[in-house]
Amino acid sequence: MGAVPKKKVSRARRNRRKAMWMRMQKAKLVPCPRCHELTMPYHICHHCGYYRGIQYIEIEEEE
Questions:
Q1: Which of the 8 DSSP states describes residue 39?
Q2: pLDDT, tens digit, for every residue of 20-47?
Q3: What is the reported pLDDT for 1?
Q4: Distance of alpha carbon 25 from alpha carbon 28, whole angstroms
Q5: Residue 59, helix vs strand vs coil
Q6: CB neighbours (10 Å) of residue 56?
Q7: Residue 59 — pLDDT band, cuts 50, 70, 90?
Q8: For the whole model, what pTM was predicted?
Q9: What three-state secondary structure class fits 20?
Q10: Burial of 5: CB neighbours in 10 Å, binned 0-12, 13-18, 19+
Q11: SS3 of 29, please?
Q12: Which of 2, 22, 35, 38 could be cross-linked to 48 through a Cys-Cys bond (beta carbons 3.0 to 4.6 Å apart)?
């Protein structure tokens, strides 16, 4: 029989632990295939508004 926890881990304790682990990870950035700006993988690019070739956000051009 394997190891079994003696008490249930509360949602707050579990979430705090996971949040700290996420904070310790380096931010992984990849270049956007459309505008070549660095953005998080699997997220909409905030510079051009595209994700996987589809425009989701209309970005106004600054002049």
A1: E
A2: 877 777 778 899 999 999 998 899 998 9
A3: 75
A4: 8
A5: coil
A6: 10
A7: confident
A8: 0.53
A9: helix
A10: exposed
A11: coil
A12: 35
Listed by start position, the domains of the chain span: 27-63
Supply the mean pLDDT for the chain. Answer: 87
pLDDT of residue 23: 75
Q: Which residues pair with 38 in a beta bridge?
A: 31
b/e for 11-47, b at 16 or more Cβ within 10 A?
eeeeeeeeeeeeeeeeeeeeebeeeeeebeeeebbee
For residue 48, the one-letter residue type is C
Q: What angle do CA 54, 58, 63 make, to 5 degrees?
A: 130
